[in-house]
Write a structure and sequence with these properties.
- By secondary structure, the chain is mostly helical.
- The chain has one domain (2-86).
- Helices cover 63% and strands 7% of the residues.
- The protein is built from four helices and two strands.
- A two-stranded antiparallel sheet has the order 1-2.
- Helix 1 (18-28) runs antiparallel to helix 4 (75-86) and helix 2 packs antiparallel against helix 3 (51-68).
- It is globular.
- The two termini are 21 Å apart.
Amino acid sequence: MYAVGGGTFEFSSAPVTFSALKQLVASFSTDAAVTSGLNDKLDAAALAKSAKIGSSRIDAFASQVNAQTGKALTPAQAQLLTMLVHQLR
């Protein structure tokens, strides 16, 4: 279980999925354009035809999360998203 801001989020021992991470992004982000951009990057990573391409799209997601820390995402939210997205490699 992770506590972020006023909420808590619980993940089972099952692997993180792109779909679950997209839902988390939607619940965290305070900016619709940021939500869309982050979720587009997750979609692109999920559809990547090679691990190398998928990994670069995950890196792009993490970079945008970093750029939005303190803006559309709190530092705690950004840390959690970054940790979880790296489990998708």
